[in-house]
Amino acid sequence: MDFTQHPFLHIIWSFFIIFVWVAWFWLLISIGIDIFRRHDISGGLKAVWLIFIVFVPFLGVLVYVLTQSKSMQERSIQEASQQKRAMDDYIRATATTPGGAATEIAQAKALRDDGTITEEEFNAIKARALASS
Fold it and tell me: How many CA atoms lie less than 13 Å away from 103 in the CB half-sphere?
């Protein structure tokens, strides 16, 4: 039996080739993003890196990863921490309501005591505040 003609091996080989292509393009895109994200080099040097990676891709990627991997990692960690800080700030800003239900009920009670709203309006505001909390 000849194993090289087995259809299942062709499927496995196709999956492997697709995986390698996806990984290669992911690596190219990641390096391109890192080049543009850098603030420590000029635009001319960025262009040289991109030309090197486009015209001599295997050697360009290998040289970039070997020479810039530590700074690539530092920039990636810095970007992740900035995104985490921004997400935490957004969550804090949207999750905390100033006062909450107790403050809303207290304000409605003050309005009821002043005679600005009726007892029914106060009960409606109180029910809405308790339902939203």
Answer: 4
CA–CA dist 121, 125 (Å, integer): 6
Nearest alpha-carbon partner for 74 in 38, 33, 27: 38
* DSSP state at residue 40: S
CB 34 within 8 A of CB 72: yes
For 25-52, what is the mean pLDDT? 93
- How do residues 7-38 score in pLDDT, each as one tens digit? 888 889 899 999 999 999 999 999 999 999 88
CA–CA–CA angle 37, 41, 47 (5° rounding): 80
Question: Is residue 86 predicted with pLDDT exceeding 70?
Answer: yes
Please answer whether residues 37 and 71 qualify as being in contact, where contact means their C-beta atoms are separated by less than 8 angstroms.
no
Type of residue found at 54:
V
pLDDT tens digits, residue range 107-131?
Answer: 889 999 988 899 999 999 888 888 8
Tokens found for residue 63: 């040289």
Contact 53, 32 (CB under 8 A): yes
The two structure tokens encoding residue 127: 């029910």
